[in-house]
Amino acid sequence: MKNHELAPICLFTYNRLEETKKTVQALHLNNLAGSSELFVFSDGWRNNEAKKKVELVRTFLKTISGFKKVTIIESEINKGLAKSIIDGVSNMLNRYSRVIVLEDDLRTTPNFLDFMNQSLDFYENNRAIQSVSGYSLKIRSKMVDSDVYFHHRAHSWSWATWSNRWDDGIFDKQRLKNELTKEALSSFKETCGADISEMLVNSINGVNDSWYVRWAYSHFKNNTYGVYPNYSKVENIGFTNEGTNCNGIDVSLIELDKFYKKKFKFIDIVTIDKNINREFLIYFTKFYKFKYRLKLLKSLEGRKSLFFEISRKFRK
Length: 316
What we know:
The protein has eleven helices and ten strands. By secondary structure, it is an alpha/beta fold.
């Protein structure tokens, strides 16, 4: 394994000031923050109501310090999350061999950058790996003698990849529509989760604007994997009314890393553990989501969250 310069960090922001502050503050506390370059992409406002909020976020962005270098890229138009990420990551990977990607609602642990950079180093030449995730679901079954596990389903709540694994053509909706078959969709669902084939069809047909599900499909199609930490280095704080894609209730459980180790154990043999796979895929079933919401009804905070989610849907 060769040692490389630290991967640049791409942070994508829009109009959520408080979440953005928390994201940046946590990232600043990372062990490797002072040695890492930070590129912040600020999307343009979609309407006058959002303009003031975007401007407040941009004012804050100009105060960021504590990194090796901070570069702010302000869009004059509203691209939306999908186009912002696809364009931003593509441009970065034309300049750099690797990149770490965050959105403005993710609070990281102090060893997040350690894990991401060490993973990028270790799996650089292993083409079975397409991405690295800093976020992880709560999995009871842990890999023996390793700090990681693998899955075909990539995750979007903090991730990293290499320039030779990134092809912006995979996001071409028409190309996907032409090549998708019922058999492929069925296999995608079986391999990557009960919800994902519907998400992909909706993305291709413009019902949602998810870049992520097309990225996840690329892993499935290429028969490649995402690397996950046994203990999550990230928690999502974005389940608010301002969230582009994450509003309502987070039904996923995580074990947030509280050990803060700086050196990690990786394994060369990339395979999916049957027990881990079963636990992982449960989170994406309707039964699990229903059961989780039912459990929430037993607590006051849970009832408040459910009320917020229902009222939000009625406001749409």
